[in-house]
């Protein structure tokens, strides 16, 4: 399981624009770089990131080999109602990780 860092406010006012920051620890190997023994390292990247807010897709990103290791993503949402944010990273070799956080709208 990869280490993730999520920066989300615990509460927000209704209608407030909330910034969300995500970072996941992942090597993002392109499949083009030779290793110490001279053989090309197999590709291992995160290909897709999604964020759902109360089961509605609010952000989606397609990632490619040129993305740096430990990809950082920042985006905003409008706090409409209290609910759950679900973050999902999907990648090569069956990699998948999901994290959830609550957002309380006051």
Automatic annotation (TrEMBL):
Matches recorded under InterPro entries: Ig-like_fold, Ig_E-set, SoxZ, SoxZ_dom
Which protein, by its recorded name, is this?
A: Thiosulfate oxidation carrier complex protein SoxZ
Gene3D superfamilies with a match to the protein in the record: Immunoglobulins
- Per its UniProt entry, which superkingdom is the organism in? Bacteria
User: Taxonomically, what lineage is the organism?
Assistant: Bacteria, Pseudomonadati, Pseudomonadota, Alphaproteobacteria, Acetobacterales
Where does the record place the Sulphur oxidation protein SoxZ domain? 9-100
Species assigned in the record = Siccirubricoccus deserti
